[in-house]
Each structure stands twice: as structure tokens, then as C-alpha cells.
Write a structure and sequence with these properties.
This protein is mainly alpha-helical and 96 residues long. Helix content is 79%, strand content 0%.
Amino acid sequence: MLSAGRVLEVEAEVLRHSLQERPNVDVAKGMLMAMFRYSEAEAFAELCRVAGQEGISLYSLAAALVELVSGADSVAGSTEPATVAAHRHWGTTATA
């Protein structure tokens, strides 16, 4: 069993991670909104749907979509599950 102090440390770390990853989710939503004319809610639902379908985290999928659309060199030939999922779902549209 974790001590109360340790529980607070873990919770703080989880919150820090969420705050660091949140910008990628917002940018990815914006990209989907621009590419497909989704509303913000529809873009978020699409990210959640694909992340769940692929069994990957929303944050990793969002980061992969941002890299894919921005043309990052690290995306080419990647076997990372999130990158593969982003390519599979939006690759042709994102790179056109």
C-alpha cells in the first residue's frame, strides 16, 4: 500500500504528464478539423475512436498525427503503433 505522500507524488506526476501532452491533442484536433471539417467534438471523438480501436493512448496517437501532418522525418518507415495507426487512418489525406 502506498503512503499518502507517495500517492500525492504519483498524482502530481500524472497531472504533469497530462499537461505536457495536452497541446498535441489540441493540435491534432485542429488538424482533423481542418482536413475533414469536423467540429471540435467530432475531431476529439475521432481521435478517441481510433485510439481505442488501435489499442493505443490518445496522447501517442495525437503526437503521431501531428508529426505525420507536419512532415517529420521520424515518421517515415516507423513501426511505432501510433505512427502506423495515424498513417492507416489519415496518411493519404494528411500528406496530400
